[in-house]
Amino acid sequence: MKNLFLLAVLSIAMISCIGNKKKSNVSTEASEYSVFELDNLLAVADQELENTLIVVGYVTHTCKHSGKRCFIIGESQKATIRIEAKGEIAGFNRELVGSKLSVTGVLKERRLSEEFISDMEKDVNKRIEEDGSAETCAAELSNISDMRQWMKDNNKDYYVIYYMDGLSFDVLE
Question: First-to-last CA distance in the chain?
């Protein structure tokens, strides 16, 4: 009788654990969408614009006031993308920082024109002259230089920032 009771308790515990287990991987067979590690997505992002897809990465930041945005980074820690809370996503809580996510969403882009980038550069140089905030401004000027180099390397008259309108997400183990 004691063994039967123990077996029943263990069975209930196993069933409850199975029911609460977080999704541990992304099944490409079960998904109707293409699945990308973030590092791989950015290489083909221009071909995936406006498509619904799944991207996998690690949360580096969530917006603390509204929770309506999070940023994820790829395995290489060189690629990052902003995820906007849309669809079933009410928001991203701060406890997600460091977690690996699988996000289903629509890939979008924002283009920064050469004129916009030049205006940014003028503003930075003006701040350097006015208040001498050279350290912060040097980082901004470096980013502007990187944008221009990307435009030159890709033969574009604009710089692209990719982001996703997130529809749903799963925390991966």
Answer: 38
Tens of pLDDT, residue by residue over 139-148, are 888 899 999 9
pLDDT per residue as tens digits for the range 13-62: 333 333 333 333 444 444 689 999 999 998 899 999 999 999 999 999 99
Summarised one tens digit per residue, pLDDT across range 91-101 is 999 999 999 99
* Nearest residue to 167 via CA among 103, 81, 108: 103
CA-closest candidate to residue 159, choices 109, 112, 107: 112
Strands 69-73, 52-62: pairing is antiparallel
Return the structure tokens found at 125: 């140089």
Query: How far apart are the C-alpha atoms of 159 and 168, rounded to whole Å?
Result: 28
Beta strands in 9-99 (DSSP E): 35-37, 52-62, 69-73, 80-85
Indicate the CATH number for domain 24-111+159-172.
Answer: 2.40.50.140
pLDDT (mean) for 65-75? 92
Where helices occur in 21-153 by DSSP H, the ranges are 38-48, 114-131, 134-153
Using alpha carbons, select from 41, 20, 161 the residue that is nearest to residue 104. 41
Q: Where do the structural domains in the chain lie, given as residue ranges?
A: 24-111+159-172, 114-151
